[in-house]
């Protein structure tokens, strides 16, 4: 089973313009973000360390809502 949230490197807050001949910049933003694989969206919470991002990712993957559990409702 694929996990819903994964840790990704943060993107820079300011967009820098690079000449096309230099290619892709080596340095990304500082810190880490979470990516929601179900909604296909990056959550820009910007954790300073990977350990903090991994902890939050584990908490979000473990604590899903009742709608993800597949439980039938009342009525």
What can you see in these coordinates?
The protein has 2 helices and 3 strands. The chain has a domain at 1-13 and 30-67. By secondary structure, the chain is α+β, with helices and mostly antiparallel strands. The chain is elongated. The two termini are 30 Å apart. It has a 3-stranded antiparallel beta sheet, covered by helices on one side.
Rough shape? elongated
Helix content class: 10-25%
Number of helices: 2
End-to-end distance, in Å? Answer: 30 Å
Structural class designation: alpha+beta
Main beta sheet strand tally, sense and closure: 3 strands, antiparallel
Strand order of the largest sheet: 1-2-3
Mean pLDDT score: 76
Blueprint (SSEs and pairs):
Layout: E1 5-9, E2 32-36, E3 41-47, H1 50-62, H2 66-69
Antiparallel strand pairs: 1-2, 2-3
Features:
75 residues, disordered C terminus, alpha+beta, three-stranded antiparallel β-sheet, single chain, 3 strands
In brief:
This protein is of the alpha+beta class and 75 residues long. Helices cover 23% and strands 23% of the residues.
